[in-house]
User: Fold these one by one.
Assistant:
Number 1:
Amino acid sequence: MADGQISPRKAINLADYTPPVFLVDEVALDFTLDPAATIVRATLNLRRQAPGPLALDGRDLELLSIKLNGEALGGNRYVLTESSLTLDDVPDVFTLETEVKIIPETNTELSGLYMSGTGFFTQCEPEGFRKITFFPDRPDVMARYKVTLRADQSKYPVLLSNGNNTASGAAGTQIWATWEDPHPKPSYLFALVAADLVAVKDSFTTASGREVALGIWVAAGDETRCGHAMYALKNAMKWDEDTFGLEYDLDIFNIAAVSDFNAGAMENKGLNIFNTAYVLASPATATDADFQGVERVIAHEYFHNWTGDRVTCRDWFQLSLKEGLTVFRDQEYMADQFSAAVKRISDVRSLRATQFRDDAGPLAHPVRPASYLEINNFYTTTIYEKGAEVVRMYRTLIGREAFRKGMDIYIAENDNSAATVEDFFAAMQAATAIDLKQIMRWYEQAGTPEVSFDESHDPAAQTYTLTLRQHTAPTPGQPVKQPFMIPVAMGLLDATGRDIHTETLILAQPEQSFTFHNISEPPTPSLFRNFSAPVKLQGQSRQRLAFLAAKDTDLFNRWDAMQQYATLVLLDAVKAHQAGQAFALDAGLLEAVTATLRDAARDPAFAAEALLLPAETLLADAMSIVDPDAIRFVREAARKALGETLREDFFAAYAQFAAVAASDVSGHAIASRALKNAALGYLSAAGDTTLAGAQFLSGENMTDTLAALVNVAELADERRDDAFASFYDQWRANALVLDKWFSVQARAGAPDTLARVQALTKHKDFDLRNPNRVRALIGAFAANPSKFHEASGAGYQLLADTIFTLDETNPQIAARLTTAMGSWRRYDTARQSLMKAQLERILAKEKLSPNTYEMASKALA
Ligand code: 0A1
Ligand code: ZN
């Protein structure tokens, strides 16, 4: 460890949990808001639960005064450290008043109270509240809040907090507003906004007839891009009533949009705070994927009102209790809006690309980790997306009806309290006769199980026996794994592709056999239908995959068979390329793509997914030593060969699906554009770039413009440079669109991408203080396998340089970027040592944050 480095935090362990010594029944907060010196007065009504001192969390707070039951305390009555305020000698029930000064304008971490644009915003999850006032900043302390905000009226005319606005007024140039939240909540759900914003307003009448006032607060001029967010909010409110019987519980629901935000959005009670990227959308500025992102995140945060706010988490180890469940709920919501199969396909595609990769590397952790250094590092795809898969497995195992019953029990038993994963388990177990005990292993053990199978058919007995085996490789700290409880939704297909049997098997042992009767011919099994468990199924032959891709009645498995088939042939092509052989297109792949394309009109959204070849990162995951250049070469060669061979079909599909209005964002229009742009991609790969150029010029719809630009970006000549120049001129004033301008350049496969990204880090619009911009350029570049892993190591250097600087202002984002080098051991020795050197350089930095320390040290361990 370098001299001067702050000592990394000590690990927090689940096993060490103890209940709070004091509860807070009520808290009154009074803010006098000033960018350079905000004064926070807090009055806490405390009640003892256990023997011991009162220990409050607090960071970066200047304590101005402290009173106990109205009496000022001298410095001998408390101990103040960098992160806490402790009072030894206190009664069992008392009132504590503190007054602190904080400096929002220097808060670049974007946690606690900070400035963005010209206004004040907060982000308290998970541990930001302690940067606002002294408090037991842990989710199992739930209090009722009364909040008064005071600010300069000319600069901050809008004052918002949680709950209901019970009083407001003006005093000279200052205005003030009081907000009261009747529901007890943990400190991480506190929020305030004081800014110059305008509202788009609407209302929603709940199933029981209460009227809820809805407001979406944005910067003046952005009101025209809030329509989709408002639609999504009302739609989600209705869906949660219809699907889970859950009604909104306040008279007002506000959303405020902020352009500097570390994450996507935050579920603060009655006052969600959103990254502008998940609020603002119009067909001219946002892609279809952006529209869906807005809808998904609006729904997600709204659903947290019950799964997160009313029922919260006992401690941060239980994070997936609210996140896995709420992701499951938003996935179900989205599946109900468009095609359920296509939604499942895109969710699984991203689960495999991110979560499976993390689960196979040094940063792997269970859905409920046992230990952490910095909880901010645990907002991961494992907690969120794998957590959602675990919830889905409960439902697959016990059925929809029992699952709904279990949800009712979970809410009823845990309302207004801080729950654990065991509480969720108990509710589900109470709703079914199936013994679910073993499902808990999904929370405890990291890693992706690998499932293989054997089969035998006995024509005399007319039986078919399927033997399934599971194995999970070691992960950090977990050398030996116990078997998981794995629901295997399956079907047996006859030679014509008809289902002769369907069932959900439960694989709970390392190896289990299942015998099926009255099976006269050897059937083809279709396993893990609709991706019934987050596992890797191994050992399917190409012939099988080709059959399932053409015939399976399960749409998900049809897509998956085609993906697995494509993966096998592309990996073979990588080997051939490494051996110096020329690329040859596999006949089966050509046949499958041809069939998909010719049948596209039947379900264009599905066809658009099925036409996409497995991503470079997915191919990389299947190689023992990743060769990013060979992968890129082969994948592009395949796209080119398919584009050339099927040129007429792709042109025809392009023309057939082109006729949708630029402003149409219906499911049909989105699917048509997706198919058309998939065709455009193949045609461009085959060298027909005129079409992309023309589409770029005519674009009135951001989906089409961007799809065209992505193809033009591959050309390293003036056509590309002109396109980026004109896009910049048109959109320089729109931050979210400018983010796209950065990220398309960073994702490009053109030979000069690295140099361009290096230059873009010096661009006047590049800003390390804005997380969206950092993700758009640096995050996107680190996800561009062949460019980031350029053999010289210059890509690693660029990333590490960014992390180095960023760690000083925003450690959360710096730590997240560090994960891009987490899989360094999977590369050749030259790249390994280049990445390792950068990780070591980061680790040796003076005053490295605990956030980045945890990620870099675990990556190297
Ligand atoms: N609970 C939010 C995610 C979130 C987490 C951390 C944040 O700041 C550090 C912000 C938001 C969600 O699941 O949407
Ligand atoms: Zn969430």
Number 2:
Amino acid sequence: VIGEVSASMPHNDTKASEYGRAGAPPAGSVSPVFDDLAAASTPSEMNSNAKTGGAGPVKDGQFKDGSLDKDRAPPPQGPLTTNQGVLMADNQSSLKAGLRGPALLKDFILREKITHFDHERIPERVVHARGSGAHGFFEAFDSLEHLTCAAPFAEKGKKTPVFVRFSTVAGERGSKDTARDVRGFAIKFYTDQGNWDLVANNMPVFFIQDAIKFPDLVHAVKPEPHHAMPQAASAHDTFWDFVSLMPESTHMLMWQMSDRAIPRSYRMMQGFGVHTFRFVTREGKATFVKFHLTPKLGTHSLVWDEAVKIAGADPDFHRRDLWEAIDAGEYPEWTFGVQLIPEEDAEKFSFDLLDSTKIIPEELVPVTPIGRLVLNRNPDNFFAETEQVAFCAAHVIPGIDFTNDPLLAGRIHSYQDTQLLRLGGPNFHEIPINAAVVPVNNNQRDGFHRQTIHRGKVAYEPNSLAGGCPFQAGNAGFVPFPEPVSGVELTGKPEKFAEHYNQARLFFNSQTPAEQKHIIDAFAFELGKVTVPAVRERTVSMLRNVTDALAIPVAKKLGITKLPPPMPPATDKVFKPEVEKSDFLSLRSFPGEAGIRTRKVAILCEDGVDGAAVRNVAEALIAEGAVVRLVSSRLGAITGESLSVEADTTYEASPSVVFDAMVLPGGKSAAEAMMKNGEALGFVRTLFRHCKPMLVIGEGAQVLKKADIDPTASYPGVHVVAKGGDGTADLIASMIKHRHFERETDPPMV
Ligand code: HDE
């Protein structure tokens, strides 16, 4: 019967396994070789309790990478099966009553596949939905035993595995990477005392002082609820309405409107723990601590017009950048530092250490480097690792403790709670990426998706029937810092929390003129999107308390002719700031130590290009670690004047915004072709407008001129040399500076 039916069935000749009866892969299939993965997981290992970190020591020296082996699956080989392991005969058609008849409910294979598919998505994070992660390690520079008993700092050279997730805050999971936003910088340390999560940001302060305002803040910044717009943007009515009624947000607004909110790369931004935490020794001696991370590549940003254009050209810009760098062995690295404040200095400053809208200026308390953070491995699977990783501000280990920061208090609750919904129950600690690398021994049982198969009849403590195990660890365990507590129950804030403008002013005054201009432009842009004039004016009145050097130009750009009076301060008391200017607050203070490594350079080529110049420049740049791409109007071979080259990409596929610098190598007919090509000219113009370095050789100068940029003028970062001339060293020197904002004009020249 089967034979008869199949003769009349529609058939795809090129698919040998159309009906599954061939039982073999299609001709021409390639079997990927995954020896390492295949060897790592036998069925029995994959089912063992140890994979959850839950029942016994990890075999491989407690390194996270090794512990994940038990859960890694090689790409499936051989015939298809259902989730129950039943071989599937046919994966092309569902079961029907007759070829043109109805599908049958008893097709359990169809139903299993569709049901699984229907459930493939989990709720996205309510904030920080869009993110990218990587594995790596933390290495201690020295023992910090005199300050803390936390495991990562126990001895010089000690390495602790980490997983880091970077994120934007407001946008949904599929939103663009280059939104103006705070960036999350969440670090999970898999320590040999259990997991410690430092759930940090790329800015050292926050919008609000008390967790009770967090839902309001997030509701205000997220897309407006009636029409779900705008996506991944704070430039709208509700955000500015809220923050202009919450003057405590002023300091954070400075950071958010600064270039910090549009980083060039996750690899080129700082990280901050924000709150004041405590280091605690085994003897119970505590020291206040603030955590800082500073990138080896320096701190670099995009310009706003560029960020907007990248959002279209490559919405995955930061995700791709991180992935490609790690893939190429260019491992991002940060120096991990701490500000240490003795307990007795708790009330010493003009601001409150428990106020997350304040920094401790580094002039008052310097940052001491204590280790390095290196990211050296991309995840194997985005969902399993980056999406399912669950950070929690409450995950601390012995040696690290909280303070009474009221924002932190809310976070200690929120993260655990949010995972219950997002990851579907209380057993998310068993998901491989979240599992500790040390044994998890307790009597918690059951719940959705329990992986561990606990044996024995005892699930309580104390007991004698299980030899008393597991028993409490006493002083070897987490002993909360015995913070003295007194006072009456009340809502309210400490006095210094009411001072909202000193550090906003400190931040603005510490920026270079170009950075200040970007802040002014950002306020004007965002408020320009606000439709309610009163909200714009209220924000300007708030900014007047920072400095009129900011408020007046913003008001001018908004067409506010009559300057509103400064917003009345929340306190009449004057808190004199200790520091009025701090170099550490300008991005320009951290040029980095890595030269031009991983910076992307476009060399523009058309037929007739000076191939020798292309080769010389490319070789010199590659030798310095830059990534060079030959960009043209089409892919493939480009016939050069003396030497032919191969184009990697086109002006359309890779516009100038995805590059850090450019070379116009010249060649008579190549230059002529570019001068007739609006895309090539547009490339040159936008790259110039975004203040990026360029090297222009020979006839390339004509292209520059055609793009309305005078090749004889001396623009910082623009190097024009004659044919055969060598400007590579100048280009490299300019690239180390990243951007040449001295070139910026208002309005832009091109
Ligand atoms: Fe978060 N935050 N947050 N936050 N946060 C979340 O937890 C929350 C705050 C930060 O890559 C959520 O798992 C409250 C400050 C990062 O998975 C949620 C308050 C800082 C990430 C949550 C804050 C952060 C989150 C959403 C004020 C910098 C992404 C999903 C009281 C120090 C972590 C999740 C990742 C994520 C709550 C304020 C950093 C809802 C209640 C301050 C980097 O639990």
Number 3:
Amino acid sequence: MSGLDRASKNRLTMWLRSEKAFGLTRLPSPVVSESMAAAFVVASAPPPPVVKPVVFSPRVASPSPVMKVEQNSPVARRENKPGPPPLLILPPSAAPFTAPLLSRDDKIARLAAMDSQEVKVCTKCRLHATRTNTVFGEGDPDAAIFFLGEGPGETEDLSGRPFVGKAGQLLDKMIVGMGLTREQVYIANIVKCRPPQNRVPGADEAATCTPYLERQLEIVRPRVIVTLGLSATAYMLKSKVPMGKLRGNWQTWRGIKLMPTFHPAFLLRQFTLENREAVWSDLKLVLSELGMPVPKRAVS
Ligand code: SF4
């Protein structure tokens, strides 16, 4: 070390410390051999300038931009360097659920655990930054009917419960019109956090969040899913067909029958007799499919 100037000594000390930081349990003795010090000076010295030889050659076509990378060359080492792990979002499955049905108590326990341990603390997509509460979903874990909306609105975000605003009140009326109560069905959304300004959830947000929904559906295992509105329907069916053509026609999602119908918020905006009759017609199909009595109900 004695033959080194102050700058080289400092660089050597920093290098030894970084070696320790990378896993060496003990710093080597500060007494460094002259050969090691000399090697360090050589290794840390700036590389000599590369002088390109001037080669005269006949004009040829320029080489392909796709160059063969030599094994173990600096380029190859850089290309093979492990980068950040790829974002792993598995494509949604189309196969029916095959796991055995759970007991009611098991369903309650699993849904509660998913909500408290995963969804409430979830930061997997950007929607977590603007939410007040997550909105997991609620209802009978043994429900035959699973109503599915697109995402929480302002009232839902503030309360942490699905469909409790004006559209939710209309959904409650629709459920009562079916001869049921809100506690007898299950209600949830595609995304568990409110999109700002109630915008439609982005495809990446929906793709990130729907594994929760799929697990909810696998646990509850309803006999019918009723998708409310185009967003929820299009996401579940991976379809671009307009809502007017989809609604009222049975579809299947992972072996579960799926009935698309209008969103209650759409009904509130376009409260026409025609739209109300269309929704009532869809809900009657659901009741018939489940063998439930269809109340004689005047569309109001
Ligand atoms: Fe997590 Fe879903 Fe909320 Fe995104 S929307 S932060 S994925 S719970």
Number 4:
Amino acid sequence: MKHIAHWIGGAPVSAGDSRTSQIFDPATGQVAGTVELAEVAQVDAAVAAAKAAYPAWRDASLVKRARVLFRFRELMDSHRDELAALISAEHGKVHSDALGEVARGLEVVEFACGIPHLLKGGFSENVSTRVDSYSIRQPLGVVAGITPFNFPAMVPMWMFPVAIACGNTFILKPSEKDPSASLLMASLWKEAGLPDGVFNVLQGDKVAVDRLLEHPDVRAVSFVGSTPIARYVYETGTAHGKRVQALGGAKNHMLVLPDADLDLVADAAVSAGFGSAGERCMAISVVLAVDPVGDELVDKIVARVERLTVGPGDDAASEMGPLVTGEHRDKVASYLDLGVEEGAKLVVDGRTTPILGGGAAADTPGFWLGPTVLDHVPAGSRVHREEIFGPVLSVVRVSSFDEGLELINTGEYGNGTAIFTNDGGAARRFQNEVEVGMVGVNVPIPVPMAFYSFGGWKASLFGDTHVHGVEGVHFYTRGKVVTSRWLDPSHGGVSLGFPENK
Ligand code: NAD
């Protein structure tokens, strides 16, 4: 049984008799270990370590910081498999998918390696006679990242490479459901030469989050998780004077126009709906089929779903793994009966899916639910509107582009969306009018590259800056503008007038 604790000041720290939470093997349902849950004293110790490390790290040259990042990048690269195995064992996703999240996270490290260029300011000579102005961006101090269970490596890597490259010190509070990846990353930072205290990990729950949100020495908080907690973190953090970006939940729609290639659409819908068992904030959970393509498209989706292999994440034959916990699986599964009650047709029932090495999903130990397809889901029903966050794909039939667009724009969330069509004019109108932060045109999971920024609209993001990319650099720095004049003979004496250019 493993026991996971904190990483503070460059070393593992255990509080001994602290509160703990269980870590499961989702494929078997067995308890695999425990994770400590930080109390206020451990949070304060982590903040103190990060605060003590800040002055020297802030003053480390850009080139020195970049070199640490380059070394971290190389170490992470050579530990990809180990990291993916840790993720798969606690989250349940298949190994290849875990490798994918490590790769996407590494792209942010690679982006942050360019920090000397990213922090370049502007310079204007002679803004007034013999007066120059220049802008600089400076780090904030101690910053924190609070992350969800579904990407235990990638989502933290959306945050800490940029924050650390900018000269801040960082405290990661990962999900208590799959905490091990955070400690491997902490030890690789140390091996890369990052000074102790610049990167810290606090395992924990609401107690740790609340203390981080109110601690006077924490300057900014990045959060990714469900919408109710994102809203709470944003409101509480900003009430305590902090800069906060809080990314929330999602309900992503794919609009399928009648001219689309339905084989391409079916491949995309199944990949984006059931990859990582639907536990992705960019998963497609609703297909809006514009008449008359619904019947043909559903047939193609069902044919593909029935060929999927569901099994343990460490079995190379598995394409989809279990859900993260039994509680979450039960919540997701409850939407199957709800959907039928609301008038949908259950065309593939994931409770009966055969599991590799076991029986039907519902009868096999572990947190299993196979890919599920609900057709004729009524627009506006709970199954259509609520975030299910599991392997449940809903098909809503609509009569037109406009009806589909309206359904997307009246939804609570605005994280990701996609249109599938061969009509460039329709695609252009869609990307122009849709009220969603990340849009795919014939691309079902339009996750921006590291050098663009990731973030949704409406209840999918509280705050105004998205993560990583240039907006990430902006979030983790403060701007300063210097206006300078060196003494010269034109010095004109006292003037109480408002400074004007001369
Ligand atoms: P969650 O909101 O339950 O937990 C996220 C973090 O908040 C965890 O670290 C958790 O320990 C902490 N937390 C939980 N309850 C808390 C409370 N009451 N007070 C303070 N902190 C609390 O989310 P999750 O179940 O881990 O992750 C899934 C959710 O994350 C989904 O809603 C998904 O859409 C969302 N998500 C969003 C994005 C995005 O980019 N918008 C990305 C990934 C996941």
